[in-house]
Design brief:
Shape: elongated
Number of strands: 6
CATH class of one domain: Alpha Beta
Order of helices and strands: HEEEHEHEE
Largest sheet: 4 strands, mixed
CATH architecture of one domain: 2-Layer Sandwich
Strand content: 15-25%
Helix content: 25-40%
CATH topology of one domain: Nucleotidyltransferase, domain 5
Strand order of the largest sheet: 3-2-4-5
Length: 137
């Protein structure tokens, strides 16, 4: 005697739960990607209690190599160093269409102040605002 089922099994698969997972992953990666620091160079920044929330359009990093007595300049966290003479034209190119041009200056603790002043003079000549980046105390 054969037993018969009254219900038939349908070989379909619903994708609704899979799309929920995809959207949750998308949101997770969007949130975590905004937390990544755009300044990829490892610098020892001076400490400060004052922190501002102004948003700079361009960052300039100055790294000091005490053994060689040299400095390297990096724009927007790029690992490729630029020479000091290339800084001003590149800043002008990045900030030419900005209504409120602002530069964030990331300087290693061991960099002499005259190197910082040279970059600040470039900003003053071009009427850019300068934010000196520090690490919180």
């Amino acid at each position: 005697m054969a037993i018969r089922r009254n219900t038939k099994v349908e070989p379909t698969f619903t994708m609704s739960s899979m799309t929920d997972i995809v959207f949750l992953l998308l949101i997770f990666f969007l949130v975590t990607s905004t937390l990544i620091n755009p300044n990829a160079l490892k610098l020892l920044l001076p400490k400060s209690t004052n922190q501002i929330s102004a948003k700079a359009q361009v960052s300039v990093s100055i790294k000091h190599y005490p053994q060689a007595g040299t400095f390297s300049y990096h724009i927007n966290g790029n690992h490729r160093a630029v020479s000091f003479s290339e800084i001003e034209p590149q800043l002008q190119e990045f900030l030419q269409n900005s209504d409120d041009p602002t530069i964030s200056l990331y300087v290693d603790k061991s960099v002499p102040m005259e190197q910082v002043i040279q970059v600040m003079n470039i900003a003053k000549r071009n009427q850019y605002k300068v934010i000196l980046a520090t690490s919180p105390e």
